[in-house]
Amino acid sequence: TYYTQLLFRVSYFQWTEESWRGLDEKSNERAYVACSFHIANPGNWVFTPFIPRESANILYINVLYNTRSCDQYHDPKSCKETFNLYVKQYEQKVNDVDKETFNKTISTWSSVSVLTKDTSAVISETTQSVALLPSTKYVRFGFEENGVCVSLLTITVYYVVCDATVAKFTKYPETVTSNSREEMVKVTGKCVANAVPTQSEAPTGFCTSSGRWNHLIGECACKPGFTINAFKEEEKCVGKRFSLLCCFLGSQLTSLHPIRFSWYTFHVLSLS
């Protein structure tokens, strides 16, 4: 699984930057905070930088955050306990989050989720997914608050791949997951060196949205004259080693035939 830690930047729409003690309780981390309960009908946004698509078909965003309950404030002019997560996909970088142009383009942002406080935890956490369009080159996420007191603590954006692996003497390459969490990606495997399929069709595997290989169909086996590299517990086919113990059953040695096998050379004795 491949992860990209997002360095969070901000367009200042009434959000401020503060420090907080990280989850390891040793390092100081940046947080972005908004708390405008004293203003009637606020609408404040904060945005991520442009995030390159790379090879992703679906992006995940993990958010750690804190919100305060409205009953903690006396006579608030506006108070909510939720805030909104939006996304926008771009074919090229366009500066459309400055104050002059954002109001004109706000309708082009798509809602991802309404985030609320997890009452069972000190810090709330959510992971949301966004399927990417074929033409998308960059993605930006935006957070909107309308009167909630919220601290955005950690933002992580990532996509998932099935790691390259070898199973049943078959190599499966690193594979990016599908743009649907319900679909698997079918991949044709390739036999390791000195191995061949045991059936008429090449082995296949399925890369799941969780980043795991599943439903491996078919397998490969070592060619004649090759064996499993059991000593190193690797799925490789190597040339066989022979330890030749010779003894003379008669008094006459009739022939000596050198035979080359892979990169090993051994001698076979024919005794009469």
Automatic annotation (TrEMBL):
Gene3D superfamilies: ephrin a2 ectodomain, Galactose-binding domain-like. Its main location: membrane. Residues 1-167 form the Eph LBD domain. Keywords: ATP-binding, Membrane, Nucleotide-binding, Receptor. It is found in: Membrane. It is a single-pass membrane protein. GO terms for cellular component: plasma membrane. This is Eph LBD domain-containing protein.
